[in-house]
Q: What sequence folds into this?
C-alpha cells in the first residue's frame, strides 16, 4: 500500500512537483479562506470595492445572528454577549437571574437553525442505525451463507445502483403522502432500514475477507446463523460498519432533494433545506451572514473528517478499487 | 435439494429479507408505478387517465425539456474529461514521495466533503459579478497584463458574467463541481498506489522517461479505476440537481428567484423533472421524463461497459 509508484529522484522534477502541489493546494484552499473571512466581516466591508482581503474587524456576532435568524420576529438576544450574560446569570433584563437563564436557553433551542440541526441529527442518527443493522444482515446473507440463486440476486442488487433517485421519487412521494408522512421526517430515515445496494456491496466485500473457519467454529459450538452474525462477524466488522455509518451520516447531512420534496413545514427542515431557505431570505444582501451559516454547516463535516479520516479514505478506496 | 441446502436457502433469504422488502417497496414498485403513469395524465391527487404515448410526444416538442437535455449533456460532457484530467493529475502529484504529503492530501480532498447546498452558496458568492473575488482577481490580472502591454484592460479581455450570463453559467457549475473532485482523486490515488514498483523499474531499464512511464505503465494499470470512476460520474451527473438548483437560485439582486436561470441555461434534467412533478403537479409527464432518464442511464452504463471490454486492462490478480 505504501509503495511509491512514481519515484521522483531528479532534483528539478522534485521542484516542479512541489511547486505544482503548493499551487493546487492554494487554489483548493482559497474558497475555504474566502468563506471563513467573509463570514466574520461587517456587512459594509463585504459589499465594498476595492475588495478587502483580510477582515478589518472580526465580527463574530455574524454567527450568532445567522444561528438565531427568525423570519417574523426580531431576535430577543441581539448578540452573543447578551445571551451569554443571561446564561451565566448576569442578565440585566427583567425577572430573576434564573428565569432569564431559562428564557435564554428556550430562546436558543427555539431558534430556527438550532431546531434544524436537531432535525438533521435525528434523521442522520436514525438513518445510520438502520443502515448498519439492515445492510449488515443483508451483506451477511450475501457473503457468509451459500444458497442457490445468491449470485443472481446479488447481481440484481448491484444493478439497482443504476436507478437514479429522480426516477423513483414521484411514486415514493405519493406513497408517503398516502401514509401521511409528507411533512414529517419519516421518509428521510425509514427507507434506510431496508438496505441499499452500495452499502450491501461494501459490507459484503469486507465480510468475505473474514476466514470461514471462524464461522465454522461457531457452528460447531452450536451457534445459530444469527448468533454467528452477532457474536463473530459483527465484532470483527467494526471498521467496515464504521465506514458505512460514516457514509450515511455524510449523506444525511448533505441530502437536499429528499428534504426539498418531503418537508413542508419549517419546523421539520433539515440543515441543507434551512440553508437554502435562509439564502432565499438573505441572498444577494447579507452575504456575510450567509457565509457564516455555510461555515456552520461545513464545520461539523470537517471535524468528522479529522476524527474519522482513516475509515473514510479506506471506505472510498475499497469501493473504488474492488468494484 | 439436501436438507442442508434448504436450510441455507431459508437462512439466506431471511438475512436478506430487509432488502427484499426494500427492493420491492422502494425500488421495484416505484419503477413500475412511474412506468405505468408515464402513459397517464396524472396529477398525483386525482385518479389517473390513460393517454397512451401523448406524454412522450409532448416532451419532444417541449423546448424547456430539450433545453434541459442540452444543459445536462453539456455539463456532463465537460465534467467527465475535466474531472478525469484534474483528479488524475492531482492523484499523480499526490503519489510522489515529496515532503508534506499529508497536508496536501487533506487540503485537496476536503472540498469534496462540503455539502452541496453550502458549496453552491459559497460559489455563488465567489462568482458574484460585482463583489465576487474571482472577477476582481481576473480584472486585476487583465489590468496587469494590459499595463504591461500598454493597453486598457477591457481591450485584453473582460471578466465573464458567470451566473448572470447564459453562456457562462454552465462553465461556472463545472468549475464549482471540479473543486469537489477529491472523491475521484482518492480513488485514483489508491489505484496508483497499487501499481507494482517493479513495472516502473523495468520501464527505467528500457529507457523510459517520466511521461512514457505514465503513458505505458500507469494509465494501463489504473484503467479499471478510470472505468469505475467514469461510470459513477455518468450516473451521478445525469441526475445532477442540488448544485445547479442552489447556485442558480436567483439571477440578480435580492429575494427569491427561479432556479434554472438565467434564460433556462442551468435548468438540468432532474430540475425540470422536479418542477413538472412538484411545482406543476404534472406527475404523468414527469414520470415519462423519469423513465427516459432511467433508460438513458442504463444504456450509457452498458455502452461504457462494452467500451471497457476492449480498452480496460485487467491485470492478472489472484
A:
Amino acid at each position: 500500500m505504501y509503495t511509491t509508484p512514481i519515484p521522483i529522484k531528479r532534483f528539478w522534477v522534485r521542484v516542479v512537483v512541489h511547486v505544482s502541489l503548493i499551487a493546487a493546494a492554494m487554489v483548493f484552499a482559497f474558497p475555504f479562506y474566502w468563506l471563513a473571512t467573509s463570514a466574520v466581516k461587517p456587512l459594509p466591508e463585504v459589499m465594498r470595492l476595492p475588495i478587502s482581503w483580510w477582515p478589518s474587524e472580526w465580527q463574530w456576532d455574524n454567527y450568532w445572528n445567522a444561528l438565531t435568524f427568525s423570519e417574523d420576529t426580531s431576535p430577543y438576544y441581539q448578540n452573543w454577549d447578551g445571551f451569554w450574560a443571561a446564561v451565566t446569570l448576569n442578565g440585566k433584563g427583567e425577572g430573576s437571574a434564573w428565569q432569564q437563564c431559562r428564557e435564554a436557553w428556550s430562546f436558543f433551542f427555539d431558534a430556527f437553525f438550532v431546531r434544524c440541526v436537531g432535525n438533521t441529527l435525528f434523521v442522520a442518527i436514525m438513518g445510520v442505525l438502520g443502515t448498519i443493522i439492515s445492510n449488515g444482515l443483508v451483506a451477511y446473507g450475501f457473503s457468509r451463507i451459500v444458497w442457490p440463486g445468491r449470485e443472481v440476486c446479488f447481481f440484481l442488487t448491484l444493478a439497482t445502483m443504476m436507478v437514479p433517485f429522480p426516477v423513483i421519487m414521484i411514486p415514493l412521494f405519493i406513497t408517503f403522502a398516502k401514509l401521511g408522512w409528507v411533512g414529517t421526517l419519516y421518509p428521510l430515515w425509514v427507507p434506510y432500514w431496508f438496505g441499499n445496494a452500495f452499502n450491501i456491496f461494501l459490507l459484503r466485500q469486507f465480510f468475505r475477507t473474514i476466514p470461514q473457519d471462524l464461522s465454522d467454529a461457531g457452528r460447531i459450538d452450536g451457534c445459530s446463523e444469527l448468533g454467528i452474525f452477532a457474536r463473530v462477524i459483527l465484532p470483527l466488522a467494526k471498521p467496515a460498519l464504521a465506514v458505512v455509518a460514516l457514509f450515511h451520516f455524510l449523506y444525511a447531512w448533505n441530502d437536499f432533494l429528499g428534504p426539498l420534496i418531503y418537508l413542508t413545514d419549517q419546523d421539520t427542515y433539515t440543515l441543507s433545506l434551512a440553508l437554502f431557505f435562509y439564502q432565499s431570505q438573505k441572498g444577494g444582501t447579507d452575504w456575510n451572514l450567509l457565509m457564516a451559516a455555510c461555515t456552520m454547516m461545513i464545520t461539523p463535516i470537517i471535524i468528522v473528517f479529522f476524527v474519522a479520516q482513516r475509515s473514510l479514505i479506506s471506505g472510498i478506496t475499497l469501493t473504488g478499487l474492488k468494484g | 435439494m439436501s436438507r442442508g441446502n434448504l436450510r441455507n436457502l431459508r437462512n439466506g433469504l431471511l438475512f436478506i429479507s430487509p432488502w427484499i422488502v426494500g427492493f420491492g417497496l422502494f425500488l421495484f414498485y416505484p419503477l413500475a408505478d412511474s412506468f405505468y403513469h408515464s402513459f397517464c395524465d396524472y396529477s398525483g391527487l386525482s385518479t389517473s387517465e390513460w393517454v397512451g404515448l401523448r406524454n412522450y410526444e409532448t416532451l419532444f416538442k417541449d423546448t424547456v425539456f430539450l433545453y434541459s437535455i442540452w444543459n445536462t449533456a453539456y455539463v456532463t460532457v465537460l465534467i467527465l474529461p475535466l474531472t478525469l484530467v484534474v483528479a488524475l493529475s492531482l492523484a499523480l502529484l499526490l503519489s510522489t514521495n515529496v515532503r508534506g504529503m499529508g497536508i496536501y492530501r487533506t487540503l485537496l480532498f476536503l472540498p469534496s466533503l462540503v455539502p452541496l447546498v453550502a458549496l453552491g452558496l459559497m460559489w455563488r458568492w465567489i462568482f458574484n459579478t460585482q463583489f465576487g473575488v474571482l472577477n476582481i482577481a481576473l480584472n486585476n490580472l487583465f489590468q496587469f497584463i494590459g499595463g504591461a502591454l500598454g493597453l486598457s484592460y477591457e481591450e485584453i479581455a473582460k471578466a465573464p458574467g458567470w451566473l448572470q450570463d447564459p453562456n457562462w453559467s454552465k462553465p461556472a457549475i463545472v468549475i464549482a463541481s471540479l473543486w469537489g473532485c477529491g472523491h475521484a482523486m482518492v480513488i485514483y490515488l489508491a489505484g496508483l498506489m497499487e501499481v507494482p514498483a517493479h513495472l516502473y523499474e523495468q520501464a527505467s531499464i528500457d529507457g523510459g522517461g517520466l511521461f512514457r512511464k505514465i503513458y505505458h505503465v500507469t494509465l494501463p494499470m489504473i484503467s479499471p479505476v478510470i472505468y469505475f470512476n467514469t461510470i459513477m460520474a455518468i450516473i451521478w451527473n445525469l441526475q445532477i440537481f442540488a448544485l445547479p438548483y442552489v447556485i442558480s437560485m436567483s439571477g440578480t439582486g435580492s429575494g427569491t428567484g427561479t432556479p434554472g436561470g438565467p434564460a433556462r441555461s442551468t435548468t438540468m434534467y432532474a430540475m425540470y423533472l422536479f418542477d413538472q412533478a412538484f411545482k406543476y403537479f404534472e406527475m404523468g409527464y414527469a414520470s415519462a421524463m423519469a423513465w427516459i432518464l432511467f433508460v438513458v442511464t442504463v444504456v450509457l452504463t452498458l455502452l461504457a461497459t462494452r467500451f471497457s471490454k476492449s480498452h480496460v486492462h485487467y491485470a492478472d490478480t489472484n
Remarks:
- The CA atoms of residues 66 and 293 of chain A lie 6 Å apart.
- The mean pLDDT of chain A is 88.
- Chain A touches chain B through 102 residues (CB under 8 Å).
- The radius of gyration of chain A is 25 Å.
